[in-house]
Amino acid sequence: MKTDDLIMMLSSGPDVRPAPRPLTASLLPLSAGLLACVVLMLVLLGVRSDLMQAAALPAFWLKVSFSLLLAWAGWLAAKRLAAPGARIAALPLYLGAPVAALWCIAAILLWQAGPEARTPLFWGATWRYCPLLIALLSMPLFIAALRVMRGLAPTRLRLAGAAAGFAAGATAALVYCLHCPEMSPVFVGFWYLLGMLIPTALGALIGPRVLAW
């Protein structure tokens, strides 16, 4: 080793960066949270009785795809925000593209529908409790995500908490698709999204407190 290299190594001090956690240390709590979310849905709500018939309709898969894409984007955001210095410039595009696409479809449906059909397309029959049920189902996964992130090294704590909440909310919406009778993209584009934003707001609120390290 050259003298200059030795001096540089000694002057830099010890490496105090947190050691990376094993993959299983993250997957186990998240898997348990997802399992609890599914069990909670089955116990409290149950699977819709006409699921097989609904699965034959494009509107059902549009709802599933919307929730799945937002869940993927949410977990990607949570993963990047759990580490300092990660690039997040593309995250708004990943999160916003599915919403913008579904809103365009919803706008076309509203434009084509008659005035008497537009109100049912938006309100459906379950708007009073749909967002609250999604938020409720997200709680086990939300708690697991916060636990995993706390063991990493997030620096933007409010954004990290919001990302954990959104990822959990979007995943809960995906699970909720197995129960929800609503099929209108107009309904899904507003009320499902509202259900995802409830744990997002909660995560942004408590992130600086629970994720501090």
Unreliable stretches covering 5 or more consecutive residues: 13-20
Bulk shape:
globular
The number of distinct helices, counting runs of at least 4 residues, comes to 9
**Integer average pLDDT:** 90
- Beta-strand percent range: under 5%
Radius of gyration: 21 Å
Tally of distinct domains: 1
Coarse structural class: mainly alpha
Order of helices and strands: HHHHHHHHH
Major β-sheet, in short? none
The CA-CA distance between the termini, in Å, is: 36 Å
Give helix % range.
Answer: over 70%
**Structure summary, number of beta strands:** 0
Features:
0% strand; 9 helices; transmembrane; membrane; 74% helix; DUF1109 domain-containing protein
SSE layout:
Layout: H1 3-12, H2 23-44, H3 51-54, H4 58-81, H5 91-112, H6 115-123, H7 130-150, H8 157-176, H9 185-210
Helix pairs in contact: 2-7, 2-8, 4-5, 4-8, 5-9, 7-8, 7-9, 8-9
What does this structure look like?
The chain has helices spanning 3-12, 23-44, 51-54, 58-81, 91-112, 115-123, 130-150, 157-176, 185-210. The chain has one domain (43-210). Helices cover 74% and strands 0% of the residues. The protein contains 9 helices and no strands. InterPro entries: NrsF. Keywords: Membrane, Transmembrane, Transmembrane helix. This is DUF1109 domain-containing protein.
